[in-house]
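The records we work with from here on pair a chain with its fold. These numbers are not coordinates but entries in a learned vocabulary of local backbone shapes. To see the layout at work, look at the sequence and tokens printed below:
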Amino acid sequence: MGSNDTAELIHSWSRGFRADELTVEDIQERFATLDASGPDLAHAIRKRIGEAQRELDSIRWGMCEAGQRAEIGRVLGELERFLADHKRT
């Protein structure tokens, strides 16, 4: 999966989450299985996706669902902006 494919996948998940088509659990499970270790992804993208995966995993525990939704929305927004900025460079 290339950089553009990964970015499109994440954008798709983000849109689905904002439209309430994907749950907190859906997003956490999808990011847990996302393999961003491929050589066709820039190091900065692999690193940022790994950070998002760890952050989403930590959000899973000890937070109510509303809090999780807000934090996941924030993480997805930051990741989308990062991917958009990286795509321009």
